[in-house]
Amino acid sequence: MRFSLFRVVSGVLQFFAWVWMILLLVAGIIIVAVPIPWESLNYYGMDYNLQMGLYIFGWARWGVFVGMIVSALIGWAALMAIAGMLRLLISIETNTYQSANRAPLAYPPPAYMAPPMPSPSVYTPPPISPPPAAPTLGIVPPPAAPTFPCSNCGAELLPGDKFCQNCGAKTTT
C-alpha cells in the first residue's frame, strides 16, 4: 500500500486535534467553575477589597475561558485542515498512479467524440489553390486604353495625362 506513512501521520494529526480541543475545553471550564481561594491574595502581599477582587478576577477568568475556547477551535481547525490536506494529496497521487497504469479501452469511443487532432509536427496544411475564375456571363470587358510614350523619358502615358508619372515632364497631348 502506497503512502502508508502519510495516512498514519494524517490519523495522528486528527487524534491530536481532538485531544487539543477536549483538553482546552476542560481547562476552560475548570478555570471558570473552580473557586479561587481568596485568602491566598493576602499571602502575596495584595491588599484588595474582597468585592473588587471578585469583580476583577471574575472578568479575568471569563476572559481566559473565552481565550481558551477560541484557541481550542483554531487549533482544532488547523490540525484537521492539515490532516485533510494530507489525505487529499494522497488521494490525488493514488488516482494519478492508478489512471496512468490502466489498460487501454477495449471498446471504441462514442461516435459523437471528435477524432484526436494530429500533433503539429505531423500535421501539414493542404496546399492553397487559386480561386476559380469568375464566369463572364457574356459581358465583354472594355478594351484597354491606348498608351503613348513620353517625349522626355519614353515611359508609357495614358490619354488625358498632363504630366509624366516617371519624370514629371509636361506632355504635349
Brief write-up:
The protein is mainly α and 173 residues long.
Helix content: 40-55%
Instruction: Report the principal-axis shape.
Output: elongated
- Which residues sit in consecutive blocks of at least 5 with pLDDT less than 50? none
Q: If you compute it from the alpha carbons, what radius of gyration comes out, rounded to the nearest whole angstrom? A: 47 Å
- Largest sheet features: 2 strands, antiparallel
Strand order of the largest sheet: 1-2
In round numbers, the mean pLDDT is: 77
Total beta strands: 2
The percent range for strand residues is: under 5%
Structural class: mainly alpha
Question: Could you walk me through the main structural features you see in this protein, from its secondary elements to its overall organization?
Answer:
With 173 residues, the protein is mostly helical. The protein has three helices and two strands. The protein has helices spanning 4-33, 39-43, 50-100, and strands at 148-149, 156-157. Helix 1 (4-33) runs antiparallel to helix 3. The protein is elongated and about 130 Å long.
List keywords for this structure.
50% helix, mainly alpha, 2 strands, 173 residues, 2% strand, two-stranded antiparallel ribbon, elongated, single chain
SSE topology:
Layout: H1 4-33, H2 39-43, H3 50-100, E1 148-149, E2 156-157
Antiparallel strand pairs: 1-2
Helix pairs in contact: 1-3
